[in-house]
Amino acid sequence: MTPMDDAGHLDSSTKTPLSQAELDQLTDKLIEQLKTVFDPEIPVDVYELGLIYKVDVSDDKDVVIDMTLTAPGCPVAGEMPGWVEDAIRVIPEVRSCKVELVFDPPWDPSRMSDEAKLQLNMF
Questions:
Q1: Residue pair 107/64 in contact by the 8 Å Cβ criterion
Q2: What 3-state class would DSSP assign to 110?
Q3: Domain 20-118, CATH class in plain words
């Protein structure tokens, strides 16, 4: 049954939640795009480095990402969130993207994936 407002009109304010399949597909695309953004000082992408702390996707497909940097004084601190936003906005299903820099908890090498550690010969 389609939701109606008090006047009998279609209620467009009711949002249909994303199905698990839709969310899974979008998550795969988000990860794929995050892996296209590299820290210029380290030849590893931001996803494998563990710089992405949180990705929230609303039912309207608005994406909010909390990310950090390898160091607060990183020379590209002002640019990297924009690079991540640009990479995510390429995905046609995404309505909007906002990236917020956070420094709590501070990043450390234990957040890196095994793939990143291999690329940096840290094993």
A1: no
A2: helix
A3: alpha beta
Q: Where are the beta strands (DSSP E) in the chain?
A: 52-57, 62-67, 96-101
By three-state DSSP, how is residue 42 classified? coil
- Give φ, ψ of 56 to 5 degrees: -110, 135
Contact residues for 22 (Cβ-Cβ < 8 A; gap 6+): none
Within a 10 A sphere around the Cβ of 42, how many other Cβ atoms? 16
Q: Are 97 and 63 in contact (CB under 8 A)?
A: yes
- Its pTM stands at 0.82
Look at residues 67, 80, 55, 78 and name the one whose alpha carbon lies nearest to residue 111. Answer: 67
Q: At which residue do the structure tokens 């957040």 appear?
A: 111
What are the tens digits of pLDDT across the range 8-66? 444 444 457 889 999 999 999 999 999 999 988 888 999 999 999 999 999 999 999 99
